[in-house]
Design goal:
By secondary structure, this protein is mostly helical. The protein has three helices and no strands. It has a domain of 62 residues. Helix 1 packs antiparallel against helix 2. The longest helix has 30 residues.
Amino acid sequence: MEMDYLDPQGAEHMPEMADSGIALEFLLSVKTGIHTYAMAITETASPELRKTLYRQMEQSIDLHAELSDLMLNKGWLYPNDVGKQVELDLKSADNAVIIAGMNLFPNDTDRLGMFATPNQ
């Protein structure tokens, strides 16, 4: 039987897989922001602006720590174990290839009669 991904059963475990990917993308964005703040601090001549950028960079560093801790606790990040991290990255890459190969938009998307609806 061909899997119908529009059926809620076809989306089982998908939120968990998506959460780790979203968290990793967010972590990378925060890291980029920290780098950008550091560069901007060195380029500005205004002491007020430098102080503001520094405060924002500190907040980004705190956010990075929070997000890293979350990912460590969930088992989505292994910064101290390269072997485990490579294994996790390979699994994530395999999942991305599987998702890319799914027929998420089949020709027949008519769901009339699949759900309880009042008589019209």
